[in-house]
Amino acid sequence: MSATVNFFLGLIAFWAIVLALRNYLSKKGFTVYPLFLMWKRETRDQWLPRLANSKGFKIFEIASVILAIISMAGGVFLILSALSALLIPAKASSVKLEPIIPGVTVGLDQAPYILFSIGVSVLVHELMHAISSTSNKVPVKGGGVILLGFFPGAFVEPDENSFMSSTLSSKLKIVSAGIAINLILAGIFFPLAVYLPSLLSQGIYIDGVIPNSAAYNASIHGGYVLESVNGIRVTTPSQLKAILDNGTRYTLGLITPHGLETINVTSQSHFLGVYISYYYSPLVYPFLSFFLWMFIVNFSLALLNGAPLIITDGGKIFTEILKRFHVSENVSMAIQGLLVLLLIIAISMSFIPQ
Question: What membrane topology does this protein have (predicted)?
């Protein structure tokens, strides 16, 4: 039985137990529905007041509104770009919206890093909402954590009456703070995810071999690690390509299940015929995976939560801005409803073979 099947059987068993304990959990303050678990409680009305009232945070709040509007534009652009294949059939879309589902759209081995990244990102997101509420004199009424399927989440609840009676500036700052911190985190983790792999790589991992290629004919198999070519150490694809382009006869230094081996390969096309990736120490891999998913999760949250999609922070910002120009909330909801429909179509398209 595959790991994916075991994972989903375990998930079904977990939710069956949760539903069986529904009455007990309800007495402990949990809200339980199929695939939905929430724990909520009243909380302090002010969060980190010293930070919230500092000059630095006030500057951050102003910048956060600008970043949120940029995220809103980016989110709308992302959705429309993903639909470009429908609008221009002759042109393949360079953007694809695909849900992150461990064991389905990404490897199950990535699940711990994905879930931890989501948990951290959402927690920081909601914390910024709470601090900004304090900064703008809006009490925080409550907060909690949720589990949707196997995705963790968190939330805070500013006092609704105080929030609705606040100025437009305060509303925008409170709502924008979460979007902005996700965009900032994406910016922090982007260079770590992009540049660290090549810097820390200790060789080139061979993921697979193309049949009838030079590597295939030399009995090279997936799982081998390429350490050197013609006596020159290689740790990145660009280094490998540069060496391959300079000749047709290669002496490959490989780490195999049997130890170190040297294999001679000839390729007139300068092409070995292998699928490759970076090779790291086992101690390094978890950190690099976490950095990668922190970028992906935060960038995705910033764009999609920043887009005006009814239930998103971007939707709240969009509605408040339109109100400022005396445009009714119904018009805002109609526009956002259209964007939600386009998003659903874009995601559905990701499962259609191109």
Answer: Multi-pass membrane protein
Per-residue pLDDT of 234-266, as tens digits, reads 999 999 999 999 988 999 999 999 899 999 999
Choose the CATH number for 202-279 among 3.40.50.300, 3.40.50.360, 2.30.42.10, 3.40.50.2300.
2.30.42.10
Q: Which of 221, 222, 7 has the alpha carbon at shortest distance from 106? A: 7
What's the CA gap between 181 and 111, in Å, rounded?
A: 23
Dihedral sign of CA atoms 142, 143, 144, 147 in order: positive
- State pLDDT tens for residues 311-352: 888 999 999 999 889 888 889 999 999 998 888 887 777 666
| Closest among 133, 129, 154, 132 to 144, alpha carbons compared | 154
Interhelix angle 285-306/313-324, rounded to 10 degrees, is: 30
Distance CA 114, CA 136 (A): 33
Beta strands in 1-139 (DSSP E): 30-33, 36-42
Q: Which amino acid is at 158?
A: P
